[in-house]
UniProtKB/TrEMBL annotation:
UniProt EC number: 3.2.1.20
Name the record gives this protein: alpha-glucosidase
Single Gene Ontology BP annotation: carbohydrate metabolic process
Keyword GTP-binding included in the entry's annotation: no
Annotated Rhodanese domain residues: 330-353
Family of the protein in this entry: Belongs to the glycosyl hydrolase 31 family.
Signal peptide: 1-19
């Protein structure tokens, strides 16, 4: 174990949103510099009302018992569907708002796999009831003006007039996919409820963002509402994705089973509770409308691709983004960054990108650099060096904009002034600026509906890029978060609090002492020391009196004309924040937007819209290049502009295991560029956990190591075993980069997934419904990681039955499918089991230190024949960075009847030769091998292994292996 020395630069208080969830709640007054005092927000400023969530309240009103439902009238066919008027079928119940007396039902078919059901308030005398419909340019419509013949649809819509109930069925099987039979539609201005029947023991997936296993339970509640919180289990997190798919299995006459999947998407981003019960699913939202889209499938892959096409196909990533990234909160100056980059090279561990957390900022203000620790001259020299070496830099960017002290002329902040001139900020209902508090102190928040916001946003990023040549942007705090309840800075701007209302990691009383589960088993001495330190801290905290704070008060702004109870709606969702208050650790629901909407209606869209605005800005910053953005908050369609990381996780074995279902969920949501803070963010990691995690994350699309301030350093070179594990796993990853890049091309063009659950690839195998401790990377690679402390083996299932072939990545040894049974696999520390599925061909490139160097290396082709002796693969080639490609090439590789045929379409050319071809599953020794017309002499075949290997092919493919079509034959 390497000795780790942690240093925190004097004059730099580093802060992160996650600390708000893990630090102590007591307030402090910190003065880390001689040039500036740091007043502290009071600890109770982020505490709202103590509300009881309706799901927790046994006395909560039951809308199903109290409300009358609706009756359908004036039913008429319309182009592509039908419409009707829904009239309240009795006296108003007004359980959690005001009943809407009349509703419009609009049913629209098209394309054949899709059906849209919209229920919304009727316009009466040119006015609408108090409700909100998401703008088309915020979230795309799923079915929009398509005149499709319903008879051609794969779905059927049926309804009962009185009481109004409806169902959606799959025509080919008659299976009812969604049915409100036996329940009532409740539609109020602040509360919607509808329920569907489900089969017993259903298999349902999605409804994020939540930390949970991939398959959801049938006695389980889900809450969706974007919030700043540190990855608690089974609670709402940073984004909102109200989409699920359900997977059912039908028994056929021959005794086998066939899987059928369908999907359901609610285009509504209001706060919502979803109740999963034994035979039903109930949806409750606190606003908006019913806008349901049904996807017929019939496979999970079909459903997911259809949904992704609906909300927005994922952005195509630049090639370099698939390399390895390193970050931490605590790189306190440019020298720290230089040291990390140099150490990775010294230890021979590939490093593509170095990141900065908020350490680099000048007093935590966006678009700035600390003039002492991140001096622009030194920083520019550093960036020039890594760019010359083919490496990249990505800084964090927070959502809130600092409000300068109006009484201090030296506290100028031109970026704020420019935003103010553009009228780009959220307002209070009375028209004044909404002023919250985040890392810089008092802050305002961009209003994405304001006409001048985009131009100001873009101009700011362009100006900053002239000073700091960044290669991408990391968007944080964009749920959107605030450290106080309400517009707390409206009358207190001159007080300038900078320290948040909680202790930061490493400050007195908040030392980072936590370690992974089982740490004491292998690190007994350190564990005893940590336990003693925790006990001492608890005793010390009990005796400490609160430190003095700046007197700040929550501004209670009078509510505007909206008739709804905005800040405290009558139905209280089971929100994770303190007291279930929507205003805690967030901009309050009554913050007002330029277009008249309230944060209440669009809160979970804030980060999504910031991502879109940033994408548009980066197009101007680096014209012609694909923007690279990683965002914490997300919504349906965010993947069209950005990737996502799993947020502020913990250095625990459980969190490593849960990263797999996290990643698979975001595959469902159309955000394939996903990864987590490898080795964990909160707490201290240890050698074993970090080694296993570095191996696992090597097979995630986004691969980054990142951890919290004041924890031990966890770069991959800190332990010899972690360095060895990382080099081995990275060698595989970088070899597979052309395959991964091709998977992103398919995701970008067709909605296909990159990381995949086994049940998506084998939809007829019911034994796979809960498998989320192993996964597929595309159709060809299966990964079965070790996820338990102290284990030197793991177990995995090999789907497909006895006719399915799986080949060990390292030995190329073949095995058949295990038919639902788990198989033990040896996996000592440093080894992660990886398998190639028979029937696939992989175009591989020799790995190097950076992706740019790798792209210049020779190629290998690995053919994994299936039981019939066939295989298929493809390869997408372009320049790796341009938004619009002038030239591309698509390579198809097909193996059958002892021939490998390589065909191509496109004009992109490259000069790298072919080094070798390895064919797995060749049962007989060939007599003759030819490449085109030339006979090959350098080859070998093993009867036991059934591996045919041809080497020394560089001369035969001089000028570029993909420059022309060719054929390889083994007879």
């Amino acid at each position: 174990m390497r000795v780790v020395v942690i240093t925190i630069a004097s004059g730099l208080l580093c802060a992160r949103a996650a600390a708000a969830q893990t630090g102590t709640s007591g307030t402090t007054t910190a003065s880390p510099t001689s040039w500036r005092s740091i007043p502290t927000l009071p600890s109770d400023i982020d505490q709202g009302k103590k509300l009881l969530a309706n799901l927790e309240n046994p006395n909560a009103k039951d809308a199903q018992k109290l409300c009358p439902g609706y009756t359908a009238t004036n039913v008429r066919n319309s182009p592509g569907g039908l419409s009707a008027r829904l009239v309240l079928a009795g006296a108003n119940c007004n359980v959690y708002g005001t009943d809407i007396d009349q509703l419009d039902l609009r049913v629209l078919f098209g394309p054949k796999s899709r059906l849209n059901v919209r229920i919304l308030p009727v316009e009466i005398a040119g006015e609408q009831e108090s409700w909100y419909d998401i703008k088309e340019d915020y979230l795309t419509r799923t079915v929009n003006g398509v005149h499709f013949n319903p008879t051609d649809s794969e779905l059927d819509f049926q309804f009962n007039r009185s009481p109004f109930e409806f169902s959606v069925a799959r025509k080919s099987t008659g299976d009812v996919l969604f049915s409100t039979k036996g329940s009532k539609l409740v539609f109020e201005n602040q509360f919607l409820e509808f329920r569907t029947e489900l089969p017993e023991k259903y298999n349902l997936y999605g409804l994020g963002e939540v930390m949970h296993n991939i398959r959801l339970g049938n006695k389980y509640n889900r809450t969706l509402y974007a919030t700043d919180v540190s990855d608690p289990l089974d609670e709402n997190l940073y984004g909102s994705h109200p989409f699920y798919y359900e997977h059912r299995y039908a028994k056929l006459e021959d005794g086998s089973k066939k899987g059928y999947a369908h999907g359901v998407y609610l285009r509504n981003l209001h706060g919502q509770d979803i109740l999963l019960r034994k035979k039903s699913l109930t949806w409750r939202t606190i606003g908006g409308m019913v806008d349901l889209t049904f996807y017929s499938g019939p496979t999970p892959a079909d459903v997911i691709a259809d949904h992704v096409k609906t909300v927005g196909l994922p952005a195509m990533q630049q090639y370099w983004t698939l390399g390895f990234h390193q970050c931490r909160w605590g790189y306190s100056n440019v020298s720290d960054l230089e040291g990390v980059v140099e150490a990775y090279r010294d230890f021979g561990i590939p490093l593509e990108t170095i990141w900065s957390d908020i350490d680099y900022m000048d007093q935590y203000r966006d678009w700035t650099n600390d003039p002492v620790t991140y001096d622009l001259n030194a920083f520019s020299a550093f960036l020039n060096k890594i760019h010359a070496d083919g490496q990249h830099y990505v800084p964090i960017f927070d959502a809130a904009i600092y409000v300068p002290n109006p009484n201090n002329a030296s506290d100028a902040y031109p970026y704020y002034d420019a935003g103010l001139a553009a009228d780009a900020y959220l307002k209070n209902p009375d028209g004044s600026l909404y002023v919250g508090a985040v890392w810089p102190g008092f802050t305002v928040f961009p209003d994405w509906s304001a006409p001048g916001t985009q131009a100001w946003w873009t101009d700011s990023f362009q100006k900053w890029h002239k000073e700091v040549e960044y290669d991408g942007i990391w968007l944080d705090m964009n749920e959107v978060s605030s450290f106080c309840v309400g517009s707390c800075g409206s009358s207190n701007i001159a007080q300038n609090p900078v320290h948040p209302p909680f202790s930061l990691p490493g400050e007195p009383g908040n030392l980072v002492l936590d370690y992974p589960e089982g740490f004491n088993n292998t690190n007994a001495t350190e564990a005893v020391s940590a336990a003693a330190a925790i006990e001492a801290r608890q005793s010390a905290n009990a005796a400490v009196e609160p430190s003095p704070t700046v007197a700040l008060f929550v501004s209670q702004v009078t509510q505007g004309v909206d008739a709804r109870a905005i800040n405290y709606p009558p139905y209280v969702i089971n929100h994770v924040q303190d007291g279930h208050d929507l205003a805690v650790h967030a901009v309050s629901p009554n913050a007002t937007h330029s277009d008249g909407s309230l944060e209440y209606d669009v809160h979970s869209l804030w980060g999504h819209l910031e991502t879109k605005a940033t994408y548009e800005s980066l197009l101007k910053v680096s014209p012609g290049k694909r923007p690279f953005i990683i965002s914490r908050s997300s919504a349906p369609g965010t993947g069209a502009w950005a990737g996502h990381w799993g947020g502020d996780n913990a250095s625990k074995w459980l969190y490593m295991a849960l990263s797999i279902p996290q990643a698979l969920s975001f595959s469902m949501f159309g955000i394939p560029m996903f990864g987590v803070d490898t080795c964990g963010f909160h707490g201290n990691t240890d050698m074993e956990l970090c080694a296993r995690w570095m191996q696992l994350s090597a097979f995630f699309p986004f691969y980054r190591n990142h951890n919290v301030l004041a924890a031990i350093s966890q770069e991959a070179y800190r332990w010899a075993a972690v360095a060895d594990s990382s080099r081995t796993a990275m060698a595989i990853r970088y070899t597979l980069l052309p395959y991964m890049y091709t998977l992103f091309h398919h995701a970008h063009t067709t909605g296909a997934t990159v990381m995949r659950a086994l049940s998506w690839e084998f939809p007829n195998d019911e034994s796979l419904v809960e498998i989320d401790r192993q996964f597929m990377l595309g159709p060809a690679i299966m990964v079965a990681p070790v996820l338990d402390q102290g284990a030197n083996y793991t177990n995995a299932t090999f789907p497909g039955g006895e006719n399915e072939k799986w080949y060990d990545w390292y030995t190329h040894e073949a095995r058949s499918g295990s038919e639902g049974k788990l198989v033990d696999l040896k996996a000592p520390l440093g080894h992660i089991p990886v398998f190639i599925r028979g029937g696939n061909i992989l175009a591989l490139q020799h790995p190097a230190y950076t992706t740019a160097e790798s792209r210049k290396n020779p190629w290998d082709i690995l053919v994994a024949l299936d039981s019939e002796g066939d295989a298929y693969g493809d390869l997408y080639l372009d320049d790796g960075e341009s938004l619009i490609q002038e030239k591309t090439t698509f390579i198809t590789l097909e193996a059958t009847n002892s021939h490998l045929n390589v065909s191509r379409k496109g004009q992109w050319t490259s000069s790298e030769p072919l080094s070798s071809v390895i064919i797995l599953g060749v049962s007989k020794k060939p007599r003759r091998i030819t490449l085109g017309q030339a006979q090959l002499d350098k080859w070998s075949w093993g009867e036991k292994a059934q591996i045919l290997k041809m080497t020394g092919l560089e001369g035969a493919t001089e000028g570029g292996v993909w420059s022309k079509e060719w054929e390889l034959s083994w007879k």
